[in-house]
Structure formats: structure tokens, C-alpha cells
Amino acid sequence: MNNAYYRYVFTGFLFSVLWASASSAGKIGLQSAEGLVLFVVRFLLAGILLLGYATIMQRDRFPEKKEWLQLIIFGAFNTTIYLGLFIISLEEVTAGITSIALALNPLLISAMTALWLKRPVSKIEWTSILIGIAGVTIASYPLLKNSYASAAGLIFLATCMVAYSFGSVYYATVSWKLSRTAINGWQVLIGGILLIPFALIFHSKPSQFDTRFWFSIAWLVVPVSIGAVQLWLYLLKSDAVKASLWLFLCPIFGLIFASLLLQEPITIFTIIGTLMVLLALMLGQGESLKKIKT
């Protein structure tokens, strides 16, 4: 095994750890500020940093004509609706459960892509999605009884997953001329701007811009929004099939972070539900696994 192999494995593990940490980091920030306020600041800062790099270092141009509409649509679904509803659900649901649920996104994207392209969704794809949903339900059951999660929070979580899946499918159907860094920067910035009115309308309590708030923001912006995304792009460029397999580790790391940092309970229901989600991911990504073996 050469250095390239070890570098790839290290990158994959680091991506999984950073991506899985987002739920716990967001939960910590919620102790100081409302979710929408927290994420508006996050998106604006991340967008400015990404666009600054794209403009100064990569010499990327500004969007033109219909590119603005494409970026607005992508930013609305991928950032405003998806992450806006995500942070709202995080106020009602434990960080561990959100990590488990969001791991199902690749399966939803696969099914939605099939429907978009009018390709029949296979039985194994539907089966994997149903197993995954059942797993999240089982993991959430005792938390609902003990007020660690609410029905409304789970509905918001499910809705944000659908929005993210739609945004991902839409992104794949557009013939982008901008660089990935520029696209990411613009969609995050636009998504943050679109979220401002909602943050103002639903604002109900003062925010404390203390150390905990800025630590949460710094972590969500740099290691997650910038670091994890760049690592993901590297993994995709190396091998898109193998890259998707690193998502399997995200629920596990998410539960570890939630337990260590937030003292969230891990019950037998959590373990069974997590195993079911991992089984669903393996079934749904079966073709990817076959390609790797061959």
C-alpha cells in the first residue's frame, strides 16, 4: 500500500468525523442563540470566505444571466430550506437522531434521481428506504417518550431531507460553468440572505453572542462548511463510488459526539435503529459495493 492509499483513507475518515460533528456543534450553538440566527451568521460568513477565495485565489468570474436564477434555486433548497429546517428540527430532536436520519440522504437522492429521470425505482431501493425510515423511527421512539425529541421536530427533519435531495438532483441536472468553490460560495451566501426574513419574523428571544456561540459558528463554518466540503470534493474526484461509502461512518461518529459532548442517551433502541440505517445504506449502495469488489 502506497502513500496515496493512506492519504485517501485518512481523508475519508476525517471527512466522516467533520461532517458528523455538525449536529453536535449546532446543538451547542443553540444554547446561546436561536437556530435561524445561528445559521444566518454561519451562512453569511461561509459564503464570504468561499467567494473571497474563489475570486482572489482562483480568479473566478461573477455569475451571468440565468446562472443567478440557477444559484437562487439551488441555494434556496440546499441551504435556506434544507439547513433552515434542519436547525429548527435540531431544537426539537437530539443531535444523535439527526445524524442517523441525515445518513439516509444518499438513498433519497438516488430514488429522487430515478423519478426525475423517469427510471423505475428498484425494489431494493424502496426496501432500503423503508428499512432506513423504520430504523430512525425505532431510534427515536424512546426519545419521544422522554421529551428528547418531538413529532414536529421529526417532521421538520424529514422535510429538510427531501429539500436537500431535491437540491442535489437539481444541481446534477444543471450544466454549471462556474467552479465548485464559486457555486458553493454563492449558494451558501444566497441561502443565508433568503433566510434573514424568516430569522426576523420568528425571532422571539435575545441571542447571547458569547464564546459558546462563536465557537459553534467557527466550527460550523471552517471545519464543516469549508473543510468537510473540500474533503468531499477530493473524495469524489478520486472515486465517486468509493466516496459514498464514507457516509456510512457518519451516523456512528454523530452518536459518539452527541454522547460525549452533549450527554445524549444511547439506548438499545438507538443501537438497533442505527444498525438498521447502516443496513439500509449498504443495501441501497449495493451496486457501489459490487463495483469496488470487482
Descriptive tags:
single chain, 294 residues, mainly alpha, globular
Q: Give me the secondary-structure category.
A: mainly alpha
Spans of at least 5 consecutive residues whose pLDDT stays below 50 are none
Shape, please?
globular
Helical residue percent band: over 70%
Describe the sheet with the most strands. none
SSE order, one letter for each helix or strand:
HHHHHHHHHHHHHH
Q: Tell me what portion of residues adopts beta-strand conformation.
A: under 5%
Report the average pLDDT across residues. 82
Number of helices in the DSSP assignment: 14
Give the C-alpha Rg.
19 Å
Query: Separation of termini?
Result: 18 Å
Work out the number of β strands: 0
Would you summarize the structure shown here?
By secondary structure, the protein is mostly helical. It contains 14 helices and no strands.
What does this structure look like?
The protein is mostly helical and 294 residues long. It has a domain at 94-149 and 264-294. The chain contains 14 helices and no strands. Helix 2 runs parallel beside helix 12, helix 4 (66-90) packs antiparallel against helix 8 and helix 5 (95-102) runs antiparallel to helix 12 (250-262). The chain starts with a helix and ends with a helix.
